[in-house]
User: Fold these one by one.
Assistant:
Number 1:
Amino acid sequence: MSFTSLQSLMEAAAERQISISEMVIQLESENTGISVETIKNNMAEALSVMKKAVSSGLEEGVISVSGLTGGNATKMNTYRLNSKPLNGALSTKAMTYALACSEINASMGIIVAAPTAGSCGILPGVILACGEELECSDEDLIRALFTASGIGAVIATRATLSGAEGGCQAECGSAAAMAAAAACELCGQSAEVCMQAASLALKNVLGLACDPVCGLVEVPCVKRNGVFASIALTAADLAMAGITSVIPPDEVIDAMYAIGSSLPSSLRETACGGLAVTPTGLKLKEKMHNSTDLTDIK
Amino acid sequence: MSISIFNITGPVTIGPSSSHTAGAVRIGRVARTISGGAIKNAIITFYGSFAETYMGHGTNLAVVGGLLGLEMSDPDIKRSLDIAKEKGLNYEFKTAFDPRYHPNTVRIQASGDGRDINIRASSVGGGAISLDCMNTYEMEIPCTMPTMIIAHKDMPGLIASASDILAQKGYNIGAMKLSRSRRGGDAVLVFEVDTEVDELTLIRLRALKQVKEIIYIPKV
């Protein structure tokens, strides 16, 4: 069996009378021949890297290689701790952590691609914030990561996780779907609710373009990670309220793929459209080409 | 082909880009593995999107880091150019254009303690790569499993003989590709194998009458 659909993943788990996260672990072991214990240790390592990336990203002075981004995580952190944000405590914490991880990525720090480096802040932002606010153990977080990676594996098999192929809906959209399912897992929800959360997250970012300014993984990528942490939590809340997607989850994934194929290449990680070719985007690109010292370009 | 979940929640890598940084490290590592020894001189030519953005993505740092044998999760990649100077690796970066190539393509021409190499590879997303050309042999190898590139003369019996030698030692072939320049001409057989292949088996394969040369790439 492989990760061909969310429906079959759920049915296989139900048949074996195990959770989605357990099903994902067993599938990985069956497909690769690697022991369950090693698989769990590998995910524990990924969690550890995620935690470190978030804490490093909250320190002062984190700035990207190009100088285009930096300092947004600390701004958000100060704001949430010293005012009454419109989004609640958990959501603003998730946004802060997602920004932190994403800024570490842009500064050539070490992260876990989840599913890609450009979207690496969303899943850690959500699970670490939920973990703290809901007092979850590391074992709980690791289980949620397995649920998330099962969702991502189905999207990779059925569609794509690559911005170059499917636009940002495939990268950050998939990350938000993974994070939404993980959040529901941490709240003890059923597999069906986790799938619905994933589907609601992805459905609401369909058509999203990948138009990185100067072709770098910074603008709009860093701040998008912050926004998408909140989208994941919104989708999770909708699903936990019993709200379901009229279009079944696997069909939503298929629609994402079809939409991605219809996107012109100018909106699929070529930096030839959208934000990348705004007057400011073009000015920044010009500066980058003329500058040998990249920190000059802002 | 089934996906490993550690390519979904993973790899652990230096940022900022799965394709332009992590994949570039992997390409450097493959080049070093094929060469079989420390690299002393390397001309690194970036095409397409790599050429446009290599500085902002640290693709240049990543390729050199890979040539030095660093893992993609090694923070030392950020100072790989300094390490290269310390270890006597002379590098040169160039950019070029070829519409036939994948947008994230790099050519590495290198020499050192091992064999001279001239490879072209592309970074296809999520840290995954494709080895597209080695010397004159065109191919498309993901380098995720131990891989044997068997350059031979196109004539009957090679596939049967080679797979028989592997089967005798219990090696399982996961994927196979065969191509030839023309009937009876130069041909390339690529085996991707589940487990690393021992030296004796490689010697037996090299001794086959059809075989010109075998390049073995262990899992990188």
Note: The CA atoms of residues 13 and 73 of chain B lie 4 Å apart.
Number 2:
Amino acid sequence: MDRLININLNINNEKYDLSVKPNTLLLDLLRDEIGLTGTKRGCDTGECGACTVLIDGVPVNSCIVLAVEVDGKNITTIEGLSHNGKLHPIQETFIEKGAVQCGFCTPGMILSAKALIDNNPDPTEQDIKVAIAGNLCRCTGYKKIIEAISAAAERMRRRE
Amino acid sequence: MKKYFAAGKSLPRPDAIEKVTGRAIYGDDIKFANLLYGKVLRSTHAHAKIINIDIEKAKKFPGVKAVVTGKDLSHVLGGEAIMDYPFLAVGKVRYVGEPVAAVAAISEEIAEEALDLIDISYEELPPVFDPLKSMEEKAPLIHDKISSYKHIPVIKPIDNSNICHHVQFVNGDIEKGFKKSDHIFEDTFTTQRVHHGAIETHVAIAQYDPTGKITVWVNNDGPHRLRKDLSKAMGLSLRQIRIINAPYIGGGFGGKGGLKEETICIALAQKTQCRPVKISFNREEEFTSTITRHSSVVKMKTGVSKDGKILAREVKVVYDTGAYAEKGPTVTNQASVAAAGPYKIPNVKVDGYCVYTNKVIAGAYRGYGIPQVAWAHESQMDIIAKKLGIDPIEIRLKNVLSEGDICPTGRQVMHSIGLKECIKKIKKDIKLIEYHDKNIGKGIACAFKNTKTPSGSSAIVKINSDGTAEILTSSIEEGQGPKIILAQILAEELHLSVDNITVSSPDTDLTPFDASSTSSRTTFHMGNAVKKAAEDAKQQLLKIASELFKVNNREVKMENGKFFVKQNPSKTMSIAEVVTSRYGAGMDIMGRGSYFPEVVGEKGGMWAAPSIFWMYAAHEAEVKVDKETGRVTVLKVRAAHDVGKAINPMTCEGQIDGGVVHGMGPALFEEVIFDKNGEVANPSFLDYKIPSALDMPEISSFMIEKHHKQGPYGAKGIGEMTLVPTAAAISNAIYDATGVRIKDLPITPEKILNAIKKKDI
């Protein structure tokens, strides 16, 4: 357990050359070693979705992924969504539509939404519900989140 | 119709941008130098004497810096209502999951390994898990001597029993009332333990300084209350304890108040030579060792006239509070006051019991005991309506309270009641088109909820020389929105933009007193404090302006953020011009405001007085029941809420949406399950499911504004009310669809199928 393994990651378009313990979880690597605390810990068993990150564009629960498993992959965390201070449309609509209350599920929710819209630019309400079914929220009842995601998809279609 | 500048507008929340960019800091995100990690060893028995704890091997384990047991704090007992709570078990354990020992080490892994080196020997005692059995005379005593515990005056424990509180309310003559009744209904309703389900877990970091002062960084919903509870338990002055809240809390719903991980952290920090110690609960510990909602047994006996008027109501409610009292006694009080429902009833008797059992502690949970009694009175109301052949909406309209009526449990004259309007709003919105599907049913329920009274809040408003401002407040932000609501109130008072206002985070050394951010009280109490602080600042500014204008104080006015002499309104000064003209070398203006409701009975201390305001709501649910599988799909919920005044309609809607979906869980599937040894059998989101996006029904929310004379712009509260009527509305809809009446939550498919089978036999 003492040996370290060398891995290379691309996190939010930045290259990282790291030496990690084999049992280090991706979530802990991001939060503790790299200092990106936007990804949250909620349950440690891949049930709540608060730890959602995108791995090569696919939403994944980082609390049940070992860092060594994602060697060479592209990882997107919530911190990677805005560029030069400009918010991503999903971030804009979450603010405008009142889709944020305590905010703890928000990073994971937004990344799941991004993965959905990137693959399906015109999602129905049911498409959205399925896409965020693995992101638990106790505050909002999901209604304004779904409205925000729908509005973001429309905004992104218009900007193209 | 008054025109508002900021109050009543759906302005976006200022904390949203931090949250959507992942920059918002929660408890576990705060970094410390030289940090030690704490882990807790917990009881594996529901009821047992602790014979011996051997910590020697653990102490010697490399990387371990401190090991503590109850012996280190044997004189310390905490608790807001009854001080019965040891920080770590002393003498005996009373529930599976109770903290018995803890380790602080240089890493979490080392702390966990060291726990395995602690040997504990127990002598088992007979446990009692059922609250009704626990009330019996022969039941094993969970607390040997309740009378030895200190408690607040309103609490009445019964010595030599497991009943830690009994409260009774009597109004009128219950026997006469039943004699006058044409029909009498007697039903028993029960509810289960449910969990708060906040996505963020409990976390605290504690550190001593060399003078003996403790600082605790924490996600607690009442920092001043926590400071006071620790001060009383540990015999320290308030000044010796500093509570600094994490800027944001990831959901609470009542679960993050009182004493939980903080106490164990402090116990460890006492032994680490001023190094900070952090304890972060995992999801399993959230289920096994924090708190749940009280399960309940509610016996309701109601006498009605043949035309549907309630003449008498007798309620006996028993709450299972688990191994320690925590908020149980005050939950029992608050809920007993509301147990007869929001109705005009001349003869009422309520007995509320708070009972110990050898299970995880039950405490504050959104609704504070009232969802359980609302479940009972609204289910029974439909039973009554059906028997008498009266429409469920009409029977409620016939009986609900109106302005000036006496609360059913006596005690107070009711003011600001928007319930008729809530019910009528829903009635109007229900389409006259009937569903053609026999499996779809509709149900309605209404309820009311109080707030803890008396309780106080203070705020300081700091006006900077450029006219921007800060609000110093100890209200916490766990999603309910004080960051925007309090800013809107200051914006309204001084005609500022909310973009130029910062609302602080609590630090008990710096931000003034607030009782807690609970009980749906923040908008009303802290809102009033901010309003008063703004008025205080305004008066100071008017005085300075009058000196600058060289006129008498009474001749200067402030309108739309500008100061001018009434006779000469064209020459104005802004707030910034007033301050900088007077204080060229630099200064700010500090306005302060304190709000403490003037009520009858306030001298009795906490929880002693009738509620300063009541919230009202009606929910209508439309469900489809699959009679083959018993599965219920909630199609639609209409929720009408009397909020007094919606200071931010968008955030109010958000509360309603959230409360409705939250309420569906305990109604249909959420349940903390205990095995035969009293251990929580489903301590994970895998086995304890909370509603996901796929469960969300169509939600229509309506806000009724029945102004309260003492609320800021007439506002009252909303947060807890949003899940109070939901379970009964769903149950009444299930009855409408199937003809089966389930009186025990959750209403699972099995219960529906069994009931349908019995009905068809």
Note: Chain B has a mean pLDDT of 96.
